[in-house]
UniProtKB/TrEMBL annotation:
PANTHER family: CRYPTIC BETA-GLUCOSIDE BGL OPERON ANTITERMINATOR, LICABCH OPERON REGULATOR-RELATED. The lineage of its organism: Bacteria, Bacillati, Bacillota, Bacilli, Lactobacillales. It comes from Enterococcus faecium EnGen0026. Residues 195-295, 299-405 form the PRD domain. This is PRD domain-containing protein. The keyword Zinc-finger does not apply.
Amino acid sequence: MSIKLDDRQMRILNFLLENDHTTYQELAEQLQVSTKTISKANANLKTVVEKEINLQIVVQPKKGVSLVGDKEDLRKLLPDFEITKVDTSEDRITYVFAKLLNTTGSLKIQDLADELFVSRSTMESTIKEVKKRVMKHGMAVISDRNGLKINAGEKGKRKLMSEVLNYYWGGFTASSNKSDLLDLNINLLGETNNFLDKEILKKVAMILNRFMEETQLQFTDYEFQTLAIHLAIALERIDSNNFLLQEGGTEKEILENTSYLIDMLEQAFHFNIPKYEQEYIDIHISAIEKNAMNHNLSETTLPNLDLGEQLKQLVLDELNEFHADAELINNLVLHLNAAVKRLRLGVNIHNPYTEKIKSSFKQAFFLSVNLLEKIEEQFLVRFDDDEIAYVTLHIQSFLDRYRPNKSEVLLVCSSGYGTSKLLEQRINRTIRFFIH
């Protein structure tokens, strides 16, 4: 038996177990919320408890609230309860994402506020942030008299599903058996469980682990996570007859390793994966084959990469003043070659550390933005902040190695101390790597 309660409902249930009688006022003081919020939470809790357990939550005038039935049976079941938390603004945003993706109709703002026990104004702020993020992916949340709904095709919905799942996955640590990590690192909220069966994700992880062993391909932890989520969503959507629409162009030949993985998936899930879906899987495998873990960088010949020479020239031109070394050039070109191919097909990757990278490595992020603007112009793709942050790590690694001979500078300014400090700041901002 799997009974799902939110954190607030669980606290109410524990209090009722320990006290024969209580009141909404006492519960409100214990949980530091209003009596109205307690009333809503208790009504939802009553529905779950009376349906799943042989117990009743009785509310009587003057006597208050009490549990009626065998409390010992409930105590034995408590360790098996699944507790979901929606405490932070990010939790609320992700919950609303999942809710919108799970419905074909419209959702009322007040209903969402009631579900999460927050005020309407708090939910309106949450919706505003959801709209921004949906717009970032080239889609929209439509508001009308019926409520809210996402206006997106199958490709767009899958992008948003990936973003939600990445949020719940959490961090990784290295392991020789990555499927072991899945159960420890992904804890799906109730609504998210409705668009992805966690068992499918586990099955995909086991297949990927076997694929790694048999092909000897090495995945980074994040490549493993991204591909597992992509495959799990794609397989569930294909099985429910939700297919990506074929865009213009001829069919492309897929890699040998991709073909091998597709055979493994089709045998395990007992249905065929359409050719166009296979091409998306091929993008991931192509990127993995070209990552530094699967190459001896000293032996990597950039002309063998599809876009190698063009990307190499752009990197050299943009980072000319820093005298980029071979390690930086090879790492960047390998990364960007796969990234451009991904972005041309609309496949983005999530970066859980983007904000930290932006604040910690400002100079490297600035250089990455300039470099990627040139690449965007030449290849007609768009790099968002998550993509820029990955490039930033390559450039920051180089800057940590890069130690040019710095010159001593004496700044003389006849306009006064204030002007000289302003000049000092501007000089440091533009050429700080070359001066003391």
